[in-house]
Amino acid sequence: MTNVAVIGAQWGDEGKGKVVDWLASRADVVVRYQGGHNAGHTLVVGKETYKLSLLPSGLVRGKLGVIGNGVVIDPEALLSEIARVQAQGLSVTPETLRIADNAVLILPMHGALDRAREGARGDRKIGTTGRGIGPAYEDKVARRAIRVADLAEPETLDAKLDELLRHHNTLLASLGAPIFEKAAVLARLLELAPSILQYAEPVWERLDGLRKGGKRILFEGAQAVMLDVDHGTYPYVTSSNTVAATAASGAGIGPQAVGFVLGIAKAYTTRVGSGPFPSELHDDIGKGLGARGHEFGTVTGRPRRCGWFDAAMVRQAVKVGGIQGLALTKLDVLDGLAELKICTGYRIRGELVSHLPAAPGAQAAAEPIYETMEGWSGSSRGAKSWADLPAQAVKYVRRIEELTEAPVTLVSTSPERDDTIMVRDPFQD
Ligand code: GDP
Ligand code: IMO
Ligand code: MG
């Protein structure tokens, strides 16, 4: 018996929420360890659809949810998300949700700076979610961030806000954006403090106890390897590390406790925001994938860019992310396509290359090399076993395993929780 970490293997929105919800029935606790409310995880349970950004997906199963120190927490966003899911009938209490007291807060000037900088970038904008994720992580490494535990110390908040506002107001003013007044920010933080502090604790201690007690921990990643600040398509990335190694540092647990690393990949590729996307489709096939897959951002509602499955990119994600098995999602969206293409490598300025290089010019110049496979006419939607899948769909999955050098552990065939084929139980060592 082991723990499991779920990470995205492409550019996000692979269906991590669905897979985490499905796996959560086998876990005792679900831990978020990086990212913030830039994430949007959709869970479909019968007639109810839950859209979670900060809350760990295990809460929907009534499992303990933990928000680790590696997450950047917007207190306003967290409280409104709690209120929203409570209105849907979920119970979120200090017994079911714990938040790391050393996690960093996102404050209103972070979102303002994120949006002002994107505006100033013009054509070169990253296409961020505008939620202040980057500026909050910047403040963390610059050692001026306000953390959850600071909410209990008004004098600490007061002093930290001086430094924070000196920095942010200078930048905001230089971009022509409105600046913030300390008294108002401080008053609002003090108002929110009790609601947040009721969930706060040193979660590393609880996780240590759970681990020693033989409990199963499920680590829920946000974003994906190709959005990782080191390993992704920099600078068109998010501001945290998204690889599985981050689960340890972002939760306060040793790397050996992370367990089996399950990478989630769509049976095709999507991306929101700007940046290179070699297998992107600008034709009717791409539009069809977007329509059948309902490819609109959970957080921003932006249409997602769609393209063929990029096996070279996922193979790279498998290697740098430490992925031991893949969960392949949205296979059903490919139902009915006469022909499918899989990108197996790139041609960059005349050279054959098997991975996406680090230089942005080379990434932008990468032309996909495809192999073509026959599609299937039957339906894979709702399949719960290999036997339910059209033979050609099984061949497609097998080819993906070969090209990505990772075994397929799960296959997802609809947004519904139970429409999942389990090839191997990731919690079983
Ligand atoms: P996440 O950010 O990785 O959790 O993914 P999102 O929730 O942002 O986006 C995935 C979308 O695909 C959601 O609307 C899911 O309900 C949906 N989804 C997940 N798995 C499947 C699947 O196997 N088939 C189909 N058709 N939809 C799926
Ligand atoms: P989940 O967890 C898809 C993208 C943004 C932008 C870039 C930087 O739902 O898979 P940021 O606001 O993080 O500074 O934006 O990263 N991005 C995501 N794309 N899914 C996500 O999360 C994302 N979180 C951030 O669109 O391109
Ligand atoms: Mg998402």
How many domains?
A: 3
CATH topology of the largest domain: Adenylosuccinate Synthetase, Chain A, domain 1
Taking the alpha carbons of the first and last residues, their distance comes to: 5 Å
Tertiary shape: globular
Share in helix:
25-40%
* Helix-and-strand structural type: alpha/beta
Rg for CA atoms: 21 Å
Return residue spans where pLDDT drops below 50 for at least 5 consecutive residues: none
* Bound ligands: guanosine-5'-diphosphate, 6-O-phosphoryl inosine monophosphate, magnesium ion
CATH superfamily descriptor of the largest domain: Adenylosuccinate Synthetase, subunit A, domain 1
Q: Summarize the biggest pleated sheet.
A: 10 strands, mixed
* Count of individual helical segments: 12
Indicate the CATH class of the largest domain: Alpha Beta
- Based on DSSP secondary structure assignment, what is the total number of beta strands? 20
Order of adjacent strands in the largest pleated sheet: 9-7-5-2-10-1-11-15-19-20
CATH architecture of the largest domain: 3-Layer(aba) Sandwich
Question: Residue-averaged pLDDT, rounded?
Answer: 97
